[in-house]
User: Fold these one by one.
Assistant:
Number 1:
Amino acid sequence: MIRSEILREIAPIIRDQLVVCNIGLPSQELHMIDDQPTNFYMLGTMGLSSSIGLGLALSQDKTVISIDGDGSVLTNLGTLPTIANNVADNYILLIIDNGSYGSTGDQPTYAGMKTSLTAVAKACGCENVVECQDVDTGKVLQAALDSKKMTIIVSKCDSGNIKLPVITKDPVVIRDRFMTAVAS
Amino acid sequence: MSISKKIVDDLVANDVSFITTVPCKQLAGVIEEVEERDEIFHIPANKEDEGMGLCAGAWMGGKRPAIIMQNTAIGVTINTLATLTQFYRMPLPMLISYRGELREPVACQVEMAVHTKALLNQLNIPTYHFHKESDADELDAILKYTFMCNKPVAILTDASFWGGYGDQ
Ligand SMILES: Cc1ncc(C[n+]2csc(CCOP(=O)(O)OP(=O)(O)O)c2C)c(N)n1
Ligand SMILES: [Mg+2]
């Protein structure tokens, strides 16, 4: 499966949760598949989806899912020790690991070579780290939600993108709509 | 009252309850004070852009955030300031040690000091410079201003403000 197929499959599971979605195609795909006020789309700032989601989870009670990419986690690797040492049981980090910088044309990342983000997350002290295959992402994500334990999921999938438009919503509108959903 | 305590009192009085930090020698006292306060959740970051991401999330979750960092971190955070904090219009008080100014013992610090105000100016970031201890009297107003206009705001605190570097 490619990222957009995973997003399609998990859309019904994440629909009622707060979602912080990674820059580029992940946000564009989620926006097209199931736009929700509970989605915060990143339009820039590669790397910070996990940090924004953690800050949000630590500041209110609702469950937060950060959808991140392998390339983005690699660029902000410092996030994993911060997550490990500031446990928020309402926080799930879902890393869609397609082994590439998908949004910029599928250039390979080190996560698709020798580096295991699962092992890195564990070495950083994260306690519930689950690596799964693309087809099992929905099941694993639901189990993480049910467990009410902070969980890092590394979903191994194929590289590949679909054609779709950029998000033209104003960032302040995205943010304000999201904050209203957070506070409701 | 120590200046660190006064600063943190102003943060607490302005309902700032989520603070991320990356240390600087000059900021040791204020970070210690932040860590001690029950009203504040202190979350050390590994890099300042990461810290700004945490602050963005905290603010959207209903908390008032702040970051405490060294001026060299302006070089680390320009993309985040422009594409996250400013683009989505979020407030962020930045208490910044202004290294590389008068009395600085480390030559390398001067290399970012000479760019600090120019970069902040280029980014249209409101910038205040604390040089004497009494300059901190404005902190309360600066914090109110930051959360009024939803912008990142820089508070540069130089060595003279912190009482120098001790015996050199
Ligand atoms: C600082 C910075 N460098 C490079 C980019 C270009 N860029 C945007 S998305 C992206 C790829 C992200 O890859 P990954 O997180 O694995 O997500 P994927 O698209 O593969 O799902 C890159 C390199 C950027 N936006 N910012
Ligand atoms: Mg990728």
Number 2:
Amino acid sequence: MKKPSKLEAINLDAYYGDFHALKSINVAMEEKAVTAFIGPSGCGKSTFLRTFNRMNDYIDGFRIDGQILLDGRDIYANDVQVDELRKEVGMVFQKPNPFPKSIFENVVYGLRIQGIKDKKILQETCEKSLRQAAIWDEVKDKLDKSALALSGGQQQRLCIARALAIQPSVILMDEPASALDPISSAKIEELIYELKKDYTIVIVTHNMQQAGRVSDYTAFFYMGELVEYAKTKTMFTSPHDTRTQNYITGRFG
Amino acid sequence: MRVQEKIIESLLWLSAAITILITISIVWVLLSESVLFFSEVSLVRFLTEKEWTPLFADKKFGILPLVAGTFLTTVIAIAVALPIGLTIAIYLNEYAHARFKTYIKPLLEVLATIPTVVYGFFALTVVTPFLQSFIPGLAGFNALSAGIVMGIMIIPMISSLSEDAISAVPRSLREAAYGMGSTRLQTAFGVMVPAASSGILVSVILAISRAVGETMIVAIAAGQQPRLTLNPFVPIETITTYIVQVSLGDVPHGSLEYRTIFAAGMTLFVFTFILNNLSFWIKKKYQEKYD
Ligand SMILES: Nc1ncnc2c1ncn2[C@@H]1O[C@H](COP(=O)(O)OP(=O)(O)OP(=O)(O)O)[C@@H](O)[C@H]1O
Ligand SMILES: [Mg+2]
């Protein structure tokens, strides 16, 4: 049985000023599955990903046409509170970006801004999120130490823990492992595999093997268009479009 | 070609040397005159006596009243300039459009170019009467108006330097904050300001150093009465105004009265020297953090 779609883009066009960055994209993403966005540099993967938590709102001249639905609701509707939306749709960035605060304060940041002060809740959430992000054992003895003292890979898992702490239902990841060494990268992949039991995950990656390993569905973008969207296995074994084929076999991009 | 370069090089060297030489001679004059002063008045008296009356028959040489006056006006100035300056910095960074920012920043800096005499008269003839309308006990000369106006003068210093510090915070941190569902306000105060805190601190220290050394505004608006008090409603005197007062008066050169200004100057120098080094030290630490 097909699971309901969690995220959906309907006739989505996006513009940076005059530049047409995304061209009538239609796609529906399944709940509690991993969808990978692939495509050559500059094709619009990040732009598309960032429409799901409206991270592009701050860019001067950026605008969209069409709709983005989260659980069937249009997130660009007037009555949507962007900060509330982002508690539902978490994001992990390419470069680990922990706050210059302690590890503990990083994880509970999202709770603090919601006004939660209860020490017990904060501590429990902190431990739970760090365990989920598979970094608890490495940091449990130094929660009050600066997050900036961690390695890049640890910082990235900390950022994932920070995103998990506010219990979003969707996690957007923009090349989360591209700045990391192979071992840290593998850890992030394992983590994604674990997380999809509870979360809907959308990940941008340039690494075909990674897309193949972690994702259930893959979307291939080319020059602002969604060329092909299919089950990852199908796409990697028998791509429809020659552009997809060329890309995944490494012939361009 | 080579000769030309040699000439330029030696000119540059010369100007650097002259600067250093001038600094050294200032410190030397300060030191030597202060030494003469302290050979007549003990350092203990200087630091512990509660009155400063070197020009009267009954001479007292306690620097504390002048330090208190300086401290009082400086605190008032910072209390005005820090919240306003920081608010402006945050506004420019988090809310204002880039275009607006390029216009407003130089405009703000105009505040810093107004001659301090003008500020002094503004304090005396506008701010004081205005404050008197709801603070009945306020004297015509007082620390409050002088401090407030001094604060206005150093707003651009704090806003400009803090703005630089906040915009030096990596964009990724702002995105992290927004990505977690922070509002603009939460992003500004919960993430950007703390991350820029060392830079903001430097701006405050430089502003303090500026306020401590400010002369004209206090000379005009705060009165010239050394008084060991933290009451902002009465006339006081700061270290700088005392120095001006004596320099302009007819105190004979070489007398003890005359040397008091070097002792006072030395005190001022020690304060600003410490402050500037502090800011230098913080700046260095902060740069290491982001490199
Ligand atoms: N802030 C911006 N202003 C103007 N144009 C932009 C902006 N951000 C991105 N673009 C343009 O939009 C297009 C898509 O960019 P996007 O960052 O989404 O690509 P991407 O697929 O994520 O690339 P990469 O794999 O290199 O990260 C590019 O051509 C880029 O130049
Ligand atoms: Mg990208």
